[in-house]
Description:
The protein is an alpha/beta fold. Helices cover 54% and strands 12% of the residues. Belongs to the CoaE family. This is Dephospho-CoA kinase.
Amino acid sequence: MYKVGITGGIGSGKTTVCKVFEVLGIPVFYADTEAKDIMMKDSLLIDGIKSTFGAASYFEDGKLNNKHIASIVFNNEAELTKLNALVHPAVFRAFDAWEETISSNVPYTLKEAALLFESGSYKMCDTTILVTAPLETKLKRVMQRDGVSAEQVKARMDRQLSDEEKAKLASHFITNDEEHSIIEQVLCLHRQFLLAAKSN
Ligand SMILES: CC(C)(COP(=O)(O)OP(=O)(O)OC[C@H]1O[C@@H](n2cnc3c(N)ncnc32)[C@H](O)[C@@H]1O)[C@@H](O)C(=O)NCCC(=O)NCCS
Ligand SMILES: Nc1ncnc2c1ncn2[C@@H]1O[C@H](COP(=O)(O)OP(=O)(O)OP(=O)(O)O)[C@@H](O)[C@H]1O
């Protein structure tokens, strides 16, 4: 199966872009969503997270206390490294299992991951897309969506590669600056991926 990795900095709009690919019938694996799902289901991982970040990492009903974990890891690189080391291998396994469920009639799949380049998972993809947007736009979007401060968004940005670094590794680009049409850009890439998948 031809695999396309898609990434972008926080608030770039990668999930929004993926929804357009979904409308075209392309299955999308959302690594960030999957990570949080696994963190509530995998008992070994839950034990690891509790012993590393404290019992307050979960509410009494078993739901993940995102704010508690975020307040620790996005202010301390060593703590974030520990979280990534616990969670990422489980997400990689979940992606492999998901791929197995995809019908062979599907031309290609998309893997959406905030840390596609940082985690090295882009190496398992046939090609990649980087979604970009101006810094102020990204800040405004996330502050509105999550009700957080500019400092909290910047703390996460500081833990991700810059767009310049990501651009060196990316094969394709989508500009989501609210001026260029994302639908047209997605359609253009979709046509290219259909051809590439056929000759794969
Ligand atoms: C720390 C957690 C609980 C905070 O949850 P929260 O609901 O606030 O954020 P959410 O998961 O929706 O992520 C929103 C954005 O934050 C950024 N972000 C998330 N995790 C990371 C990370 N490990 N490093 C850098 N940025 C990150 C990304 O841009 C992401 O799209 C959560 O992000 C988490 O469990 N992260 C570790 C797993 C991970 O690395 N996920 C991303 C790729 S699989
Ligand atoms: N072109 C656009 N026009 C208007 N709003 C947009 C556009 N693209 C994204 N948004 C909005 O910006 C917010 C962030 O977009 P989205 O969740 O797709 O970004 P993301 O890159 O997946 O973010 P994160 O890294 O936090 O998961 C959302 O509320 C979304 O609706």
